Amino acid sequence: MAISGDTVMAPLSTTSHDTALCIIPPVSECGHIDNLREVYDKAYGVWPPHINLIYPFVAPENLTRAQFQIQEHLKQDLKLDQHTTVELSQAGLFKQRKNSTVFLCEARDVPKSFLQTLRQIALQGLGQPSSPANLHLTIGQSESETVSSRAFLLAKAKLIPTLRFRVGALAILIRERATGSDAAPSMRLWGTVDLAAPGNEWKPHTPEFWSARSLSMSHAIEVDEEDCVELHGDANSNSVQVYQTGSTYAFDANSDNWMVSTESEAENMATNEVTIASYNVLIDSEYPPDRDRDPLILRNLLSDAAVADVLVLQEISDDFLSYLLGDNEIRRRYPFTSHGPPDQPDIGPLPSMRNIVILSRWPFRWTSVPFHRRHKGALVAQFKSVSASDAVDFVVAGVHLSCGLTDGSVAAKHNQLKRLSYYLSQNHASSSWILAGDFNIATSACTIDSALKTKSITEQTAVRLSLLEQGLNEVGLLDAWSMYRLEANSDASISEAEALYDGEAGATFDPKGNMLAADSSNTSDNRPQRYDRIFIRSQEVLRVDRFNIFGLPETVDGVQLVASDHYSVRATMRMVNASKTGGDSYVETMHRMRVEHKSSTTALSDLSHLQSSLYSQGMIPTEEQTKARQQAFEILKDVILGTVDEHNLAFSGPALMMVAVGSYALGVWTVDSDLDCLCVGPISSKTFFKLARQRLIKAQERGIRLLRKVEAKTGTMLELSVHGIAVDLQYCPAGRIAEKWSEFHDLPASDPIFNLSVLSLRKLKPYRDFLYIQRTVPSLSAFRVAYRCIKLWAVQRGIYASKFGYLSGTHITLMLTWICKRLAYDSGSVSAADIIVSFFNYYANFNWTNELLFDAFFHKSPPRYHRSAREPMVILGYHTPNSNVAHTSTIPGLQILVKELKAAIEVLSRPETTWDQFLGCSSSSTESSQRLLSQGTAKFLATQHSFVKIDIQYWGRTLAKGKSLVGWIESRCLSLVVDINKMLPELEVRIWPARFTDNEVDTVELKDYHGCYLVGLTKSIAGLFGDKEGGQLARQSLETVLDRFLTQLRTDERNYDPSTSWVDVSLSRPSEIKSLRLDDREWGDYTADMDPDSDDEEDLDDGEDVDEKPVERTLPQRPKPTATPVSTSKLRPASDVLNRLRWDPSLDPSDYIIGYEDRFLGAKETNLDKWKTEQTDEEFIPQHRILYFKKKGGDGRGELVWERMTRLDKVFGSGAGPMHRRNNL
């Protein structure tokens, strides 16, 4: 129907809010607008970007008529040659009750608005009078009605480039009521009214381009509890995922502008490593922008510690990005960026107040992955063909997760990580991933415990929080800092580490040390958090090589200068040639030594129950015991270092240091543990111990008693008692280390300062290993709980005594450290219960026969260790000199250990097992535990078929000799176990690591002592063989072993005195040992006479102690020594003489005899050419046991050429002054 000039149409009412007549700009021109609308416009996804000409419009049933009438009027009134261009170049706002709406509109000085013309014609077509209107395109609504909120959004709108387009048609929208309770109504394109304009102007079309956003936004609600499933599960499969691909900008030096980059791959970017840095720069004001910290941030980013290939920035504002990208050095270092400077006229604003921006030295493509919460999302940059060898593709995802420690924020973080990992899995499954940014995941155990106590979070949320990192691990993402720390490369100082709770080491958000963090902290306890992280999924292509933290506070003129509330993190990954990784020994070793993460049962998962069980068994010291041990250490330190007696400068001169080592240093000690101390200084060992003895004797009134001096494997040691606490004091002569003690903790193992003697290195080794463990164990608290549990189990099972071939504290420490570190590498944070269960499972199935146990994070390849046939079990430590910690292990001991480990994992796998049951905690203890047989001891006595009983009787008056006798017998028991196993390998031989006695009265009242050791034989000797004759032969063989062992004991004149003691070895039946009980005799403290006692460890030749007075001995078949030594000058050591006689071409080694001290038979002789120097040789004898060298003579007696006792030396002349003539040899 045509409308003539005489036709009068009834007016159409414009009162319906379900319809609208509007102009929709071209989609290609609305990118910047939609970026802001998505964040700030509540109508985003419901309405397209539009300019309403008439709204409300006509009723839906009148749309056809309205469309016709408007079309006809446009044909009549709109001139064909009229300019149809719309230009929105100005931003404005109008206030509402609770906020303000920001919009784009035409310039105020436009002489004749085409938009107003279209509105006027459309109203005429509807029969409505003309009326003024503020025609605009809505950008969004301010967060509040505050001046800063309005000004902030208005400033963003002003940065939008001028929107200029030609109008081809008017759009008629109708509201579509969606089905479903959670679905929002949206505007649908009903039809268009074409303009009679020439050209190919853009026209709206169906389907609606904003409909997908509508579906996506319909699910943009807070995450539900059931939505938090595994991170690698489907991410909201019921919603439509909308990922926006952005333009990468490159700096063009010719135009001095940032231009859209057309490059997609890195050309000629040959590199063997990639460095990623992440920095949250902090926005602390909405509007106007605070620019005071901008120079500090820029200085941090340009520092040497921040140089990177890819820089991921968080909380970037329009103002700061314009400032940053205007710096010439930034442009040079990072010529590519995900977002250009907003102040450049053709580049729009950033979408949010706090934005993620990626800068890079290589070109890349990027995609925005939106999260559920507004303003939150990830920026995923894809890099292609970046490598010096094979083409390597990897993606870098910049993240900034929701902040806070509440049930909702933790659930939101879980959902955000889930959505990101889902995107990466779907779009970059074969590439390496790097996630960098502010994860806002609370890591401080103290903070999490406080939140639980105050009910800020539920137990379920605490569990979910611990599973966040585990979920990342499950999709192959590993924490770069943790990986770097596992190799002891963390730059955290020891003093800092001691003051931190679990999860606080490596913190990047520290309210206690950063005033900006203190202002922005949202936790009550203000504990340090490791919010900023870098995770990598290497795909065996990337390997963490370096890691550092930068952007730390500085103090200038007493004022703290800090650029941000967060510190920055940087990780360097080395690229591994994918085609050659098969030959990489580190990769192979890590695959071979994988530790299965065995989860504990529900009954074992409660840490408080485990700690309660340990406390009830005395494995956790009380507060009073802790203070007493601290006091003992401080008293000894004061005495030894000379800080008490100011007049005696003997110790105040040299730079001496004293530290704790062993169980006390690690924090795993119990009340029965010794306190191990190490002194380091520039003076000789001989001088130190003489001066120490003087000081200790003078300090007796302070509760210090000197017990004895021990010459042990690691040199000289003093056994002390400080207020009843047993203390072992050792000394390391290392002057340069004492001088650089403040730097010692951070020195690499390759530093020349460690070019020390073997003795000094051996002394330092426990402390260096302790520092390594302290710096690399992921959670010291979990480690300590697990250690105490394992130790208690080992003690109760009778396998905690290395001198009997079982475990020791060092064994457990090294074994447990590897479990903790490997589990953290594969699974992130792991509970103490899971660590314990995984420990038993791993070592119960470990191939002890063919494998070495070592830390693959420290030893990048299997250590070069020559394993002898006498070492069924090899556990290696860290620093040199590297030796087998389990050198006392035996085949029967290892068999018992594996058997107990398998039994333990079987018990721990039962759903009903509790910690009290596993650790043998009893609810009733009416008698002293020292007077009762432990459960393990009772089981041992009940399960053995027969026993080898080693009896000891002592009736001497000296406690020292009685203690020495018992210690010597203990040291020989292991050889008996080995001999029985060699003779009868079918037997299960088990020695119980405790003394037994049958005395029923207090041992203090006895004039003599009677005790015994028991070696259990599980199987019947006769039952091992099918016939009676075989059983008799086996019994005879066993008797032979026992007789030989007894003979060795009784013929050792040095340790066995038949006038004051008696020993015997016999076979006993179970009925004969029923009356035995555990021996709780205390041998008491005694004052040392400073004569060295044997610790039954093979000493090393200590050149500094060769001047000490030798022990008087009577040697058979040798001339009686003179009363006065030949010389008082230093004697050349036996090793020099041995080498001279063996390698001097003018001498014949077969002409010489070596006299040496046999442990059991006294002085012995052997030909020099038969002497073994290889420690792994079964006939090896330590050189410190050499007594003399003798040249063979015709009378059968020979001539002494070197003797230790008389200091005779005819080989070098060291003992007799000038060198003798050659014919003396």
From TrEMBL:
Boundaries of each Poly(A) polymerase central domain copy?
A: 783-910
The kind of enzyme this is, by top-level EC class, is transferase
- Does the keyword section mention Acyltransferase? no
Give the E.C. number(s): 2.7.7.19
* Entry's localization field: Nucleus
Q: Name one Pfam family in it.
A: MJ1316
InterPro entries per the UniProt record, alphabetical: Cyclic_Pdiesterase, Endo/exonu/phosph_ase_sf, Endo/exonuclease/phosphatase, MJ1316, NT_sf, NuclTrfase_I-like_C, PolA_pol_cen_dom, Polymerase_NTP_transf_dom
Which residues are in the Endonuclease/exonuclease/phosphatase domain? 277-442
Which key words tag this protein in UniProt?
Answer: ATP-binding, mRNA processing, Nucleotide-binding, Nucleus, Transferase
Q: Which SUPFAM superfamilies does its entry note? A: DNase I-like, LigT-like, Nucleotidyltransferase, PAP/Archaeal CCA-adding enzyme, C-terminal domain, PAP/OAS1 substrate-binding domain
Name the PANTHER family for this protein: POLY A POLYMERASE, POLYNUCLEOTIDE ADENYLYLTRANSFERASE
Concerning its family, UniProt says: Belongs to the poly(A) polymerase family.
- The protein's name in its UniProt record: polynucleotide adenylyltransferase
Instruction: Give the species this sequence originates from.
Output: Plenodomus tracheiphilus IPT5
